[in-house]
């Protein structure tokens, strides 16, 4: 039995349902990546699992408890979230930003204890941001800033970490740097990592478990061999993908792709085409 | 992880503003229509003054200065909180309808209820207080959404709408009223400190004594709220509950202030601004400064305005606007 799963999750903004009747299990101590086209509900799913967006019905269960009934501070000791594009932390130093990650453990006036300071220093160190401790977050480059935010999530000392597109706005080298850091945390400290990724090849390379979403429903969930297939990608992205192998990691990768022509296109266009026919 | 130099700077500035307030009060004690020379201040303070000196100092000047100081502090703190929870640097108690709500309540009470001079002065602030509270409650109700909870942007928009509507209502109310009554209401609207007596201090002080520590206690949460909802929720802040509590604190502070001073704007906007410009956005550092700046600002405005033109002077609210508006323009130009 996994620690974290959803049961019949419906999520929507107003009338529009984005995620419909979703049952998903997040494997413990693994890296899970969620993939899907724009608007497929992957960010929304992440937000619902982390109680940022309330679901309309269904439950998210962590350690046998509905997360909406759990004390939010206790939850924050179990799971941390790095939102897609965090607000600018104007004027704060990196050290301060990271210290905010200790909030779930603080009582009263929120003075930092010795333990807090140790954890903060550790988080700065593993993310390679120790040098920026007293530097303003605004003065950092995109990659450094992102690492600072990750350090804040780490300072929360949670077993589960959620990240919504942690590599956005980063260059190739920095993207890999962030992903390798997360992998290291997963391997060395057995943290469960769940992230939404745009880049399919990165998602396949780093994931133990992949979830492919389309229109708020799971098309396929499993290891990268099961998900990175021509068939699944056709359903999820409407692309005709050529799947090969990464010569270095031997993981499946999408070498090239075309937009689908033929069958699926017709299926997609079925209604407009017939209505055009009617006008004729 | 705050730089020690910044903490030191904040402490120095804090003492500086505290000093300025004391100096302003001392200067203010000797200013006014009746003469009380500066060399008589200390003997009078220690109870060796003549009856006239004591009367002028303890019954006229001191209470007025203490009231303005406290009201300015309350407005500044209220503004700082509102800017924090709405994440909008232009938020101020005026926009959540406090001033307009209190104004309408005063107008209605003043025009339609028979007045007995004895109880009148004390009923009016109570009336203003509940008017402000009611308005804020309505604004909250209209900006609350069942699914998403309290949306700060909506709160600001609904608040501005309400202020406009209530200001309109007030004009309708007073346009048909008698001249003397209109005079009083108009004076209230310009922020004329009228509750300058010890009982009003008693009405104002408890709010500050309770709500300043609570707000400082919540400074960390305010810091987190300023990083956006997802981050705040992620580290375990009960965003919805904190917002409502802080909003209530802000409303209570502003309502308490406005009910004894009359409608005063700009303080809640400018004091937090100056404080943030001096020590940065950390709530635990800038809020104490903002409180002192707000109090000092209103004190100066009233002391100058009060003594500028004999015998009644210029309303503190107008003086604040005189000083505040150019600063506001400067802020806009700088951005």
UniProtKB/TrEMBL annotation, chain A:
Transmembrane segments: none annotated. It is a peripheral membrane protein. Keywords: ATP-binding, Cell membrane, Ion transport, Iron, Iron transport, Membrane, Nucleotide-binding, Transport. Residues 4-240 form the ABC transporter domain. Coiled coil: none annotated. It holds the Pfam family ABC_tran. CDD domains: ABC_Iron-Siderophores_B12_Hemin. Gene3D superfamilies: P-loop containing nucleotide triphosphate hydrolases. One of its GO terms (molecular function) is ATP binding. It is found in: Cell membrane. This is ABC transporter ATP-binding protein. It comes from Neobacillus paridis.
UniProtKB/TrEMBL annotation, chain B:
The chain crosses the membrane at residues 12-33, 62-82, 94-115, 121-143, 155-177, 197-217, 245-271, 283-301, 313-333. Its main location: membrane. InterPro entries: ABC_BtuC-like, ABC_transptr_permease_BtuC. It is found in: Cell membrane. It is a multi-pass membrane protein. Pfam families: FecCD. Keywords: Cell membrane, Membrane, Transmembrane, Transmembrane helix, Transport. CDD domains: TM_ABC_iron-siderophores_like. Belongs to the binding-protein-dependent transport system permease family. FecCD subfamily. This is Iron ABC transporter permease. It comes from Neobacillus paridis.
């Amino acid at each position: 039995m996994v620690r974290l799963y959803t049961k019949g999750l419906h999520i929507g903004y107003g009338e529009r349902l984005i995620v419909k009747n979703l049952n998903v299990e997040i494997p413990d101590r693994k890296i899970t990546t969620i993939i899907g086209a724009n608007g497929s509900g992957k960010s929304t799913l992440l937000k619902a699992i982390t109680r940022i967006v309330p679901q309309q019905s269904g439950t998210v269960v962590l350690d046998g408890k509905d997360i909406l009934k759990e004390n939010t501070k206790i939850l924050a000791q179990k799971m941390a979230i790095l939102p897609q594009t965090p607000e600018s932390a104007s004027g704060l130093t990196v050290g301060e930003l990271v210290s905010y990650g200790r909030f779930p453990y603080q009582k009263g006036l929120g003075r930092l204890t010795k333990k807090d300071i140790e954890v903060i220093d550790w988080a700065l160190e593993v993310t390679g941001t120790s040098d920026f401790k007293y530097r303003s977050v605004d003065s950092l480059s995109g990659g450094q800033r992102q690492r600072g935010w990750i350090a804040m999530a780490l300072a929360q000392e949670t077993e589960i970490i959620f990240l919504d597109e942690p590599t956005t706005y980063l260059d190739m080298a920095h993207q890999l740097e962030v992903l390798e850091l997360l992998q290291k945390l997963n391997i060395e400290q057995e943290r469960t990592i769940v992230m939404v990724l745009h880049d399919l090849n990165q998602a396949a390379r780093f994931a133990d478990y992949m979830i492919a979403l389309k229109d708020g429903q799971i098309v396929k969930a499993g290891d990268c061999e099961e998900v990175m297939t021509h068939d699944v990608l056709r359903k999820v992205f409407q692309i005709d993908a050529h799947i090969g192998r990464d010569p270095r990691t031997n993981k499946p990768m999408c070498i090239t792709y075309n937009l689908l022509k033929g069958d699926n296109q017709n299926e997609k266009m079925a209604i407009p085409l017939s209505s055009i026919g009617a006008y004729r | 992880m705050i730089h020690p130099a910044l903490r030191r700077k904040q402490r120095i500035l804090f003492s500086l503003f505290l000093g300025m307030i004391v100096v302003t009060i001392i200067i203010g004690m000797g200013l006014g229509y009746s003469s009380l020379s500066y060399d008589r201040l200390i003997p009078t303070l220690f109870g060796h003054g003549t009856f006239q000196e004591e009367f002028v100092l303890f019954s006229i000047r001191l209470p007025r200065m203490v009231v303005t100081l406290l009201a300015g502090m309350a407005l500044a703190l209220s503004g700082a909180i509102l800017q924090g929870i709405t994440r909008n640097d232009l938020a101020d108690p005026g926009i959540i309808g406090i001033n307009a709500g209190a104004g309408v309540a005063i107008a209605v009470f003043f025009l339609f209820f028979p007045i007995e001079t004895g109880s009148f002065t004390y009923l009016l602030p109570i009336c203003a207080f509940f008017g402000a509270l009611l308005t804020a409650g309505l604004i909250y109700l209209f900006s609350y959404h069942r699914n998403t909870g309290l949306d700060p942007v909506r709160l600001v928009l609904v608040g501005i709408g309400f202020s406009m509507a209530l200001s309109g209502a007030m004009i309708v109310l007073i346009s048909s009223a008698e001249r003397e009554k209109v005079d009083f209401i108009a004076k209230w609207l310009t922020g004329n400190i009228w509750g300058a007596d010890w009982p009003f201090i008693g009405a104002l002080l408890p709010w500050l004594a309770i709500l300043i520590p609570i707000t400082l206690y919540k400074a960390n949460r305010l810091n987190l709220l300023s990083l956006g909802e997802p981050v705040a929720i992620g580290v375990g802040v009960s965003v919805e509950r904190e917002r409502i509590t802080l909003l209530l604190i802000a409303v209570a502070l502003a309502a308490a202030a406005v009910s004894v001073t009359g409608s005063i704007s700009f303080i809640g906007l400018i004091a937090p601004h100056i404080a943030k410009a001096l020590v940065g956005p950390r709530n635990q550092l800038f809020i104490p400064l903002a409180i002192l700046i707000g109090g000092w600002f209103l004190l100066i405005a009233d002391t100058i305005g009060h003594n500028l033109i004999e015998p009644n002077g210029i309303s503190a609210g107008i003086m604040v606007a005189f000083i505040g508006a150019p600063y506001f323009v400067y802020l806009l130009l700088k951005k």
